[in-house]
Amino acid sequence: MCGIFGIISKTPVSKTDLNILAKHSQQRGKDSSGLFLYKNNEYYVHKADYPLTKLVKNVAPYSCSIVMGHSRLITNGLSDNQPIVRDNIGVIHNGIIVNHEGLWEHIGKKPQLEIDTEIIAAITQWHLESGGTVEDVSTTVLKLCQGVVACAVIIPQLGKLLIFSNNGSLYQGDKNDSIAFASESYPLTQIGCKNINQVKGVRILDIPKSNNSIYSEKQEIRKTNLIPTLTTSNFEEHLLEYKKVSIRRCTKCLLPETMPFIKFDADGVCNYCNNYKLRNIPKPKEELFELVESYRRKVGNDCIVPFSGGRDSCYGLHLVVKELQMKPVAYTYDWGMVTDLGRRNISRMCAELGVENIIVADDIEKKRKYIAQNLSAWLKSPHLGMVSILTAGDKHFFRHIETVKKQTGISLNLWGVNPLEVTHFKAGFLGIPPYFDEKRVYTHGISKQLRYQYLRFKAMLESPGYFNASLWDTLSGEYYRSFTKKSDYFHIFDYWTWDEKLVEDTLDSYDWERAVDTNATWRIGDGTAAFYNYIYYTVAGFTEHDTFRSNQIREGQITRDKALALVEDENRPRYPNIKWYLDTVGMDFKEVIQAVNAIPKLYPY
């Protein structure tokens, strides 16, 4: 989940080229950075807990003939920045190895660091100690490791540099007397490389030999912990309330009387049921095959799949590769609320399907600060219609798909949005009645959005804390989601039936990881969902699980009795996820949960 690059030359590297490669690598994460250099006949590693462009400026490696860099989106191993050095073998790695903990016993070695990347260096050493050849190092690493491995392995003692990938998130090109590589092709074109090729397999390059130890220098240690240690507390967990509420529900679906704008007819059936139009009736698949035909390419990727690592985007990626037979780039936007579970599933799917993953990472520390500011403002004047502001920061997902389209030259984007995820209540609590003819999960249209923003602004006046540094980020994200015109844009589930059992069975075949704190598979990689659903259930007696299961009932996919049993389980508070969320944004668990629990209920209590 990082950006890596390298320039291997016989002469000093180009300052301009180096700065371009570093800047682009930083797009994938700027939490920490590292450089691997060859200068004065020695190899050096520099690491820092600040952006890569700043590290390049500070180190100024412009007299070096070999420079490799790493810009990190922190997943695990907070203090273990890359490049990793073990047994005098250096590694820079983009991806997550999901089975690294179980591999140490297999190779008879012990980890010295927390980060998963260390296992690549250890396997390399184990392979060579066992009599294996340099040419077969990549085969051994990729055979043992599960998850995305796109990396450079530096073996100074043998004078070899290996670059290899199991999903294609690595490119190599030539320029004059130098060879360059990067996580994506775009920066290589920007520096004028020729013969740019996607690395699937291994490329072995000669570098100067050295028997001396790699010298490592740490520039600065991060003061803010972006991955708080998850410490659980029985006291905290018992603060979370979960009581069965006595509340009137629709006799056909599950929607309760606290649902905004709900009305019941003489038979007790709600207006949401009476106005429902079937959504899960796909068009003929042949239509989609015909639509995408002109986008297919004989060489290279031919479509973009927005990819969160959640249940439906993972199944959508499977359909694009296995059924539609296209060659996608999976695009992920990380705004600081993608959990490690979500990231591991991204890595699993991309590795198994051999799909390149382009990540655009925002300033995670800043984004989490924005969430804390808005949550503090919300707690001062709790309003169910304003809960959605806690997830406003993720709307730049829609902005950056245009970035990826521009950088890859790919226009077609295929979305795996579940058609049953419509949740009228989130805007309903703000005062916006349901629009039953809406055909998309996300509402578009200028007049609707202006109405929404007007009502949100009125609610914000009740708590001036909303007028903070996040305001522009929120408004601009909403603009890109709802106002910008979308082109070459299609939905997979307009052409494939969404069937929960089939989806889950398919993902199980990829060893897709489920959450330990819930039996649900929906939104388990989203760091915000458990908290906002706790708010909705505590105050209104239902969550988005109730609306989702109600849609399944209307589609004839599930019985009402089965749905009731499911939501009783799915609405239970997910303490580990809520704890992670509040710790991550720096909010006190006890204070926040007690404040939520004290909000007046919308039902008899």
Automatic annotation (TrEMBL):
Transmembrane segments: none annotated. The keyword Transferase applies. Residues 2-210 form the Glutamine amidotransferase type-2 domain. One of its GO terms (molecular function) is glutamine-fructose-6-phosphate transaminase (isomerizing) activity. PROSITE patterns: GATASE_TYPE_2 (PS51278). Keywords: Glutamine amidotransferase, Transferase. Its EC number is 2.6.1.16. InterPro entries: GATase_2_dom, Ntn_hydrolases_N, Rossmann-like_a/b/a_fold. Signal peptide: none annotated. This is glutamine--fructose-6-phosphate transaminase (isomerizing).
